[in-house]
Amino acid sequence: MKSCLVVRHVDFEHLGTLELLLRQAGFGMRFVEAGLDHLPVSEATDDDLAVILGGPIGAYEGAEYPFLADEMRLIERRLASHRPTLGICLGAQLMAKTLGAEVYPCGVKEIGWEEVTLTSAGTASPLRALSGVPVLHWHGDVFDLPPDAVNLASTAACPHQAFALGTHGLALQFHAEIAADEIESWLIGHAVEIAAAGISPRALREATHRHGAELHHAARQLFSEWLGRLWDLPDQPR
C-alpha cells in the first residue's frame, strides 16, 4: 500500500475531496497535527506522498511557531529527493519559502470564490481542469515564484496562485480540495478573520453551495491527473 503523510495545522481544514480520491487509489493516511505531534523529519522521504495543508499563520513566523522549521526541513528533503509533495495555502507558502522565495502579506485578504487565470504552462498541466471554475481563496499572504518553479495560475490580487516544481512538486495557494459540506466549520473557525475583513459568512456559505459541486468534479480531475503522472493509477470516477 502506498502511504501519504498529511500535515494538518487546524483540525477543520481537511483533505476534502482529495481524501476519498487517495483512498480509492490505495493510499494509507498518516496524519500529523502540526505543533502537537512529532514530525518525523528523519523519515521525510519514507512516504510516497506528502500533503501540507493550510492554516492561519505565516510561513515567515518561524520565531513565533518554531515547529515550522521542521516542516520546512521535511519539505526541503522531499523536494531535493524528488518525492511527490503537495502544498495547499500555507503548505504552498512553506514550499515557496523552502525553495528560496519570499513570502509576505499582500495587504488584502483574498477570501471568497473566484476563478484563477491559467498561464500557458497551467493550461498544459492538470490545472486545466479548473479552467472557468471558481475556486475558494482564503489567504492574506503571497509568495514570489521560487527559482526553477513554473507559475501555473494567477488572480488580480495574487500573481502566483500555483506553481510546479518538476512533476513531483505542486503548490496551490487556493483551496481546490474543499468539500462544500465542510464550509460551516471554516466559517466558525475563521469567524474573527472574516469579521475583521468585513466579509459576510452568509455570502460565503451561499457561494460555496453554488460552486461546490462544480469544483468537486474539477478537483477530482486535477488531482487524478497529477497523481496519474506520478504513479500508474486506475482511472477514478469523476
Quick summary:
The chain is an alpha/beta fold.
Write up what this structure looks like:
- This protein is 33% helix and 24% strand.
- The chain is of the alpha/beta class and 238 residues long.
- It has one domain: Rossmann fold.
- The strands form 2 sheets. It has an 8-stranded mixed sheet with strand order 2-1-3-4-10-9-8-6, with helices on both faces. A two-stranded antiparallel ribbon has the order 5-7.
- Helix 1 (17-24) links the parallel strand 1 (2-8) and strand 2 (27-33).
- Helix 2 (67-80) crosses helix 3 (90-98).
- The two termini are 23 Å apart.
- The model has no long low-confidence stretch (mean pLDDT 95).
- Residues 43-180 form the Glutamine amidotransferase domain.
- Keywords: Glutamine amidotransferase.
- This is Glutamine amidotransferase.
- InterPro entries: ChyE-like, Class_I_gatase-like, GATASE.
Order of helices and strands: EHEEHEHEEHEEEEHHH
CATH top level is Alpha Beta
As a percent range, the share of strand residues is: 15-25%
H/I helix tally: 7
In round numbers, the mean pLDDT is: 95
- The proportion of residues forming helix, as a percent range, comes to 25-40%
Query: How many domains make up the 3D coordinates?
Result: 1
Rounded to an integer, what's the Rg over CA atoms? 16 Å
